[in-house]
Design brief:
330 residues, Rossmann fold, 36% helix, 2 domains
Length: 330
């Protein structure tokens, strides 16, 4: 078999160490990283893609970046193997990435895949049955090497063929990362993140927003998912949703992401949040949105500017300030 390996490099602690352990054996490694809209981990908030590039740089590796796009979102919407506590389809996610890794193996002539998986570390995707399922459905049986827990599994093909020395692999299990941090000191590593994970799909509030999107939008886009990470969200009706900014940065982002056929609402005469209406924007919906914007602006009732995508603007003055909208919060 070909001795070149692909490493699934997230930029996190375990995948970084798994990669380094195999590099120590003189194996040629190419890093493969998947960016995700649901990543919520990085130093300085720069995103996992940036961190993976930094990690690969410290390791002296080329990194190939792949985007989890609409094909992945369809998996999140209806995963074959179900969800964890939130909307996290952990098994289906691993299978998706490894299937893509298999395609990349063929493209670059690699013989096997390295992952940072640790037996027993994650309850949904890293127990024995789950790992066997991942191997089978990804089409990579006998070709997934898990250096951190390798001695708890039967030798893989690269081990049996002598490409990798099994005696130099590890036997880590469980959630403790004591051994991993000892290896960090041994290898003098600095560029890694997310030792405990960083997937928004595991967070209840974000999962609730995403489920609302799935339930009310057949034609959602990547941008719709990106908007879930911004502001406060309100479901005004089955066909209408409002997002308002929580600070200037979020107001600026909402303004930048505003596209047809959405409607932008801005406070007039007071400091308050911008509002972004998606779907039907009737006078009733705009009235509710105006009251919400006025409330978060901590002012009496003031008008808001309603700007449509055809460039027209008009003022709308809220006539009441009832608090029933609290029940509309997603």
């Amino acid at each position: 078999m070909n001795s070149k390996a692909i490493s699934l490099l997230s930029g996190g602690l375990d995948s970084t160490l798994a990669t380094r352990l195999i590099m120590e054996q003189g194996v040629e490694v190419v890093a493969l990283h998947f960016t995700s809209l649901f990543c919520n981990c990085s130093k300085g908030g720069n995103g996992c893609g940036i961190q993976a590039v930094r990690t690969a740089g410290e390791l002296g590796l080329e990194v190939m970046v792949r985007v989890k796009g609409m094909d992945y979102l369809e998996i999140v919407k209806a995963p074959k193997h179900g969800y964890g506590r939130g909307l996290n389809p952990c098994l289906d996610c691993r299978i998706f990435m490894l299937k893509e890794a298999k395609k990349t193996m063929d493209e670059i002539g690699a013989g096997f895949v390295i992952t940072g998986e640790v037996l027993g570390q994650r309850p949904m995707s890293q127990h024995r049955a789950a790992l066997r399922c991942i191997e089978k459905e990804s089409g990579l049986k006998d070709l997934i090497l898990r250096p951190l827990s390798a001695k708890h599994f039967e030798p893989t093909l690269p081990e049996r063929e002598g490409i990798v020395d099994r005696e130099k692999l590890l036997d880590i299990t469980g959630r403790s990362r004591k051994t991993q941090y000892e290896l960090v000191d041994t290898f003098h590593l600095k560029e890694f993140s997310c030792p405990g994970g960083g997937c928004l799909l595991t967070e209840p509030l974000f999962a609730k927003k995403l489920k609302d999107l799935f339930d009310h939008s057949r034609d959602f886009t990547v941008k719709d998912v990106a908007l879930l990470k911004i502001g406060r969200h309100f479901r005004l009706s089955p066909d209408t949703k409002l997002i308002i900014g929580r600070n200037k940065e979020e107001n600026d982002r909402l303004s930048a992401l505003w596209l047809a056929p959405q409607t932008l609402l801005a406070p007039q005469g007071f400091k308050g949040p911008l509002g972004l209406l998606s779907g039907v924007a009737s006078d009733m919906h705009i009235g509710i949105a105006a009251n919400i914007i006025s409330h978060y602006g901590k002012n009496d009732i003031y008008p808001v500017t309603v700007e449509s995508n055809d460039g027209t603007k008009r003022l709308h003055r809220a006539e009441w300030k009832a608090m029933i909208w609290e029940s509309l919060r997603i």
